[in-house]
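We were asked to recover a plausible sequence for a given structure. The inputs and outputs are reproduced exactly as logged, with field labels preserved.

PROBLEM: sequence recovery
POSITIONS: 302
GIVEN STRUCTURE:
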């Protein structure tokens, strides 16, 4: 007998400024939801032409970037560079240290680049691993249709209705789905027991929970589920005027302390101080930061 997860809470992600001219709706990593292990931060970002995230360091976490519209270039001090476009993802493991830039493409119509960026904590034993990137292209993502084609599921990571994602892309086990529900549609998505899970509402109004215990949530909200249960039930009312679109994520909680200072996420205050010293002195993973400047970041220097 499977149990539907109840909604623990749902709250609106307020828009704020971040980086150089970018706008983000941050939900995880705010007073409303701190360190929802293994998740450290969730940003729904809008980067207009001329804005971006120029050269900056990271240590101790992974970032997962899902582009909803436009294109974003990246470049780092190890010589890695590339571009993700609409529907693509990039999984970046900072490990012991990386310095990189993430800059939007200038779209011909002047439109903004929009996407989701999720920060995932690394298990303590992997904090000092070598940095790496893994891209997942839109065409590689399995897409299934359920409930007479009223529901479309993009299986970015994990399993849905017997279909598996392409590959493991992060060190910390995480399941990610992009789910669109037409009016009158419904879906039960299984999730591993004991994992923490949330849903971010990209558009429309979606009902979460079992029939008698439903919560209806509008756009730009983070819906946090109770840990008890092995599935999430979602539906959209038959008389709704638009589809519900949900970014559903679950991950294995890590039993460890989180000490974060900006882009450094470690397990003690001393380790954070050490990360700052290492970055300033170009040592212990930050050797290549000395004198490095990204080409794509130079567009921000006026």
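RECOVERED SEQUENCE:
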């Amino acid at each position: 007998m499977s149990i539907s997860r109840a909604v623990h809470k749902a709250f609106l992600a307020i828009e704020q400024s971040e980086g150089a001219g970018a706008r983000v709706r941050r939900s995880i990593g705010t007073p409303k939801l701190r360190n929802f292990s293994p998740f450290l931060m969730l940003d729904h970002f809008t980067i207009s032409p001329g804005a971006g995230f120029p050269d900056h360091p990271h240590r101790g976490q992974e970032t997962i970037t899902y582009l909803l519209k436009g294109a974003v270039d990246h470049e780092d001090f190890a010589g890695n560079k590339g571009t993700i476009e609409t529907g693509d993802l990039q999984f970046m493991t900072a490990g012991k240290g990386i310095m990189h830039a993430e800059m939007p493409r200038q779209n011909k119509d002047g439109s903004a680049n929009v996407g989701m960026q999720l920060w995932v904590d690394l298990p303590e034993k992997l904090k000092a691993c070598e940095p790496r990137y893994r891209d997942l292209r839109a065409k590689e993502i399995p897409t299934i249709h359920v409930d007479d084609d009223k529901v479309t599921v993009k299986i970015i990571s994990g399993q849905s209705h017997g279909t598996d994602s392409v590959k493991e892309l992060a060190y910390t086990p995480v399941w990610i789905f992009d789910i669109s529900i037409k009016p009158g549609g419904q879906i039960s998505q299984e999730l591993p027991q004991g994992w923490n899970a949330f849903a971010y509402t990209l558009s429309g109004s979606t009902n979460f929970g079992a029939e008698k215990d439903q919560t209806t949530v509008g756009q730009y909200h983070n819906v946090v589920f109770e840990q008890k249960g092995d599935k999430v039930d979602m539906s959209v009312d038959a008389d709704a005027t638009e589809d519900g679109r949900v970014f559903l994520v679950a991950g294995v909680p890590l039993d460890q302390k989180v000490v974060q200072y900006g882009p450094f996420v470690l397990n003690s205050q001393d380790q954070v101080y050490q990360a700052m010293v290492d970055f300033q002195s170009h040592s212990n993973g930050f050797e290549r930061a000395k004198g490095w400047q990204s080409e794509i970041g130079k567009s921000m220097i006026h």
